[in-house]
Each structure stands twice: as structure tokens, then as C-alpha cells.
Amino acid sequence: MAQELQQGPWFGNLARPDGQVIRFHFDVRMENRKTVLYIINANERIKMDKVRYTKDSVFFELPVFESAFKARRISSQRWEGVWTKTTTAAPLVMPFVAETQMSVQSPALKPAVADVTGRWAVTFTRENGTTRPAIGEWQQKGNTLRGTFLTPTGDYRYLSGVIDGDSMRLSTFDGVHVFLLTAKINNDRSVSGGTFYSGPTGKETWQGTRNDTATLPDVASMYFKDGDEKVNFRFRNLDKKWVSLDDPKFRNKVVVIQIMGSWCPNCMDETAFLSEYYNQNKARGVEVIALAYEYSTDFDKARQSIEKFRKRFNVKYSMLNTGVSVGDTLRTEKTLPQFTRIKSFPSTIILNKKHRVAAMKAGFEGPGTGEHYEAMKKEFEETIDKLLRPIKH
């Protein structure tokens, strides 16, 4: 008989070959007599309800991404196995250990040497010596630390961790992002000696200085190349039917084009926002079209991933499969040749009622970015409202 997971709070631990362990939190509950897991990242709760048992093993998968765990029962308070994430190349695999939180003794934390709450200008340095900018947005309460990092192409979503004396740790796991960031706090103006661990092998160094007015370069923007001409395209939806902007459904409508992929964590945040916005505003003359760039060019395989994503957010707007892999260097030329290169997922194109470009934005500041998310929503809504106004003759 299968041994079910003990209910309550657990730690999940993903081990890297270099010995670093990326820890995340999850809860196990029984809902409608079914085992349900909730991965917890700060204010985010990711529900996993696809859980099954075979003898002494348990299998559970993420609700959106092609990401799953397989573990064997060691005791009622410990399971060991692997986490697997399907990618464009070989699957990404990391050893996985789950422990009930009551079975793990929490270390005593030293008082924080400084309060790092605020906005920080951050520089990441890759192993080849190249650098990239970011902005740290952190909120500290005692030894508890939460926040995110904004980059020119998106944010690192919900990060949570602790401060132990002069050491800080932030981590997250959402099915794609597997991040651990550590650093030394010099004072309330400077952190240094940081290391950013990503997935099983990714590693960069980083440092930061407090800067309330820090900004990021606009390196991910797209542009429309062909003057004032109308935008148009033709791709198949999840029912394999061809969809075009010339279809009656979109005629004389303001159209939001969402460039996305079901593998993309920031696309998850944007989809949650757009899905709610569309349901509340479609009667005003707004349509949304998602253009999906998946790992696979096989229609049915890509469709399964997109459909999983659609169900997770109960998407009512059109979702089209471009049929072009996200890894294809010619993905823009093959799908949206009127535009410069797609550099960021997600990216958003807003068309006026005549289907000419009114606004474009690369990346998406999700709810983990706090005030930036609120500012993004306000700008988006104001843009749409303006385009919906009657045209004066």
C-alpha cells in the first residue's frame, strides 16, 4: 500500500554538483480526499494537484511547466528522488530530498548587521567576465528577507530568505527558476562577495549598492520596421484552426499581442494579469492574442504544453502556436518579419483599432516587484483606455 506524504509544512532541497543546496518550502494538504502540494515562494502559492503513488514512490508535477518530481519514501518524514525539467536539449535533472520542517532543526540566526530594505543597483558578472545590470528590490523584517531582482528582460519573481548577521540568502523554486543568491552585507549601503547559483550548474558573482533612483538600460526593446503599415499574421490555434488579425473577431478592436511561451515563468505572471483584464474588458472592444514559441516544433507536443498553461489560468482569449521553436535564431523573421528581433519573453505589442502599432513593451514586471507591477498595470490600462476612445473626425 502506498505511503502518502505526511500533511503539513515541508522543505524541498535541490542539490547541485558543487555541493550547494537550493531550498524551498511546500505544504502538503488533503483536499477533497486528494493529496495536494503548495510550493511557497514569499506571497506566491503554486498548487500541485497531480500527485500519484506506486508502492513506495510518489510522483508530482508542476501545473504549468514540463517539470516534475519523482521520489522514494525513506521514512514518514523524508523522501528522496529527482526533479526533472524538460528543455530544448537534454532534460535538466537535479537530486531532490524532501523533509518535514518539524524534523529539521532550524539554526539560530544572529541579529542582522543592517537593514537592506530598499532599491539597489546590482551588477552580475558571468564566469567569462561579462557583466549585466539588475536592480534589487528587497524588504527586510528582522531576519526575514523577501524581494526580487529586476533585469532588462524581466524579473526573478518571488524570492525569500534570511539574513544571518552579515550574510544574506535569497532563493526560489517555481518549476523553472531554481535560484539561490548569497552575499555579504557590508553595511546598509553596500553588499559584496555575492554568488548567484542557477539550476544545477549556473553560477555568477554579484555585488550591489543602495541606489533609490537606479534604472536599467533598454536593451530588449522591439521595433516595428515597416512604417505605418498594418500588422498581420496567421497561425493555428489549439484546435488547429487558422487565425488571422483579418478575422471578424478582431475587426475594429484594440488588440494586445502577447509574445510568450509555456516554459516562461514571467509569462505566467503576465498571463494571470491579461486573463483577468480580458475577462473584465473584452466587452469594451479589446482582444488579446497569445503567440506561443515552444521548445518543440511538433504541433501536438507543443499544443499539450500550451493547453496546460491555458487551463492553469483559465485563459479565454486566443492562444496560437507559432510552430517555431523559442531556440530558433530566426524565430522573429519566420513569424513577425515586420518587427526587429524578439529579445524578451514575454513581450507585448498593443495595436489600435486599425491594427497599427500603438505601444510595445519588452519584459513584464510581475507582482513580485511590488510598486513596479502596479505602475505597469496603470500604464497598460491607460494605454488601452486611450485607444478605445472614439476617433474624432
UniProtKB/TrEMBL annotation:
Domain of life: Bacteria
Start and end residues of each Thioredoxin domain: 224-389
Gene3D superfamilies membership: Glutaredoxin (3.40.30.10)
PANTHER family noted in UniProt: THIOL:DISULFIDE INTERCHANGE PROTEIN DSBE (PTHR42852), THIOREDOXIN-LIKE PROTEIN HI_1115 (PTHR42852:SF17)
Name of the protein: Redoxin family protein
Organism: Sediminibacterium roseum
